[in-house]
Structure formats: structure tokens, C-alpha cells
Amino acid sequence: MDAVNPLVPATSDLVWSGGAVVALGLAIWGLVSLSRTADSASSLAVALWAALILLVPVLGPVAWLTAGRRSAVSRPRV
Question: What are 29-66's pLDDT values in tens digits?
């Protein structure tokens, strides 16, 4: 009979932990990128993007990094 070591995490635990690390990394990357372009966007737009990045774990940062950053840089605030 095969004994299971309780100190070794199951594969599913490793996969979920890896996904959490990726989601956290994307959120941090998105927020840092947002903060760098914050002076070229309106306060409302920055607040909405920050909420999207924080509240929608993977899709929020990906949306900012693909679409939001490009639009914020191309439309400087007057």
C-alpha cells in the first residue's frame, strides 16, 4: 500500500498556489503600470482601472496591460 506523506502538498494545491501567485503578480504589474501612466489620465479613469485590476483577478490586469495602457498613453491629458 502506498503511504501518502501529509507534508507534501497535492498537485492540485501546487497548481492553485501557482495560479494565485500569477494572479498576484499580474495585479502588482498592472497597478505599477497604472501608477506610471496616472498623470496622463483622468482621476476617474485611474480609479476605475485600479478597481478593475483589483476586483477582477486575471482579466482586469490583462485588460489594462493590453488595452488601457495603450489608450492612456495615446490620449494625454490637457
Answer: 999 999 998 888 888 989 999 999 999 989 999 999 89
**What pTM, to 2 d.p., does this model score?**
0.75
**Domain enclosing residue 65, as ranges:** 12-74
pLDDT value at position 2? 60
Q: Per the structure block, which three cell numbers stand in for 1?
A: 500500500
Is 7 domain-assigned? no
Residue 6, C-alpha cell as written in the block? 501529509
Q: Are 61 and 53 in contact (CB under 8 A)?
A: yes
φ and ψ at residue 35, rounded to 5 degrees? -65, -30
Q: Into how many domains does the chain fold?
A: 1
